[in-house]
Amino acid sequence: MAIAGAVAIALQSEIIETEAFLGQLSEWVAEVDSSFAALLKDLIEWVKLPPESAVELISRAGLPLNYQHSWQGISPFVVGSVLWSLYAFLRTPQDYWETLCTSIAVGGDVDTTAAMACAISGAFLGLEAIPKQLTELLNDRETWGLGELMQLADSCYQLKMKL
Predict the structure, then answer these.
(1) How much is the pTM?
(2) Which DSSP string do the residues of the chain spell out, in sequence order?
(3) Using one digit for the tens of pLDDT, what is the confidence trace for 9-65?
(4) Whole-angstrom Cα distance, residue 60 to residue 74?
(5) What pLDDT does residue 139 have?
(6) How many structural domains is the chain composed of?
(7) Which domain covers residue 104, as residue numbers?
(8) Distances from the Cα of 17 to the Cαs of 11, 26, 65, 133, in angstroms?
């Protein structure tokens, strides 16, 4: 819900203001999970921290205080992955490549964090902001390429507009 909401906000925004962005997202999420909504408000301050400091807080978010983990970076647990993805986007909303780099730099479940962070970034910045060498590699398990995936996205959008 948080990532879908973040994409929706990004699609409708001309500029990204962290506090307003996370405030709206927190309001929506609060209807389903008040503890995660509170963490989204904490993220307003965490985004101001450098990645090496923020990862310490985000990687433990939502876990019991005495929980011992053995991974480095972001775990595959939902709370940390979603928060880190939002952190990566909100650190550099005008720069797709930096969002990608931040999302993977700390290690851990980086395929998930990169996918979520870059989905938000792509929604905000548009296809032209994504490096061409990346879009040329885009495929769906070696079947559909960029052209087919764009046609599918357009078809979905057209269906939505008919509703």
Answers:
(1) 0.90
(2) -HHHHHHHHHHH-SS--HHHHHHHHHHHHHTT-HHHHHHHHHHHHHTTS-HHHHHHHHTTTTS-TT-----SSB-SSHHHHHHHHHHHHHH-TT-HHHHHHHHHHT-BSHHHHHHHHHHHHHHHH-GGGS-HHHHTT-EETTTEEHHHHHHHHHHHHHHHHH-
(3) 999 999 999 999 999 999 999 999 999 999 999 999 999 999 999 999 999 898 878
(4) 9
(5) 86
(6) 2
(7) 2-126
(8) 14, 14, 31, 29
Amino acid at residue number 162: K
Judge if 48 and 76 occupy the same domain: yes
First vs last C-alpha separation in the chain: 21
For residues 153 and 110, membership in a common domain is answered with no
Strand partners, 74: 108
The total number of residues shown for the chain amounts to 163
One-letter amino acid identity for 46? Answer: W
* pLDDT value at residue 161: 85
The answer to whether residues 120 and 47 belong to one domain is yes
pLDDT-based confidence at residue 117 (cuts at 50, 70, 90)? very high
At 60-89, the pLDDT tens digits run 898 878 887 777 889 888 999 999 999 999
Q: Does 153 share its domain with 95?
A: no
Indicate whether 23 and 45 sit together in one domain.
yes
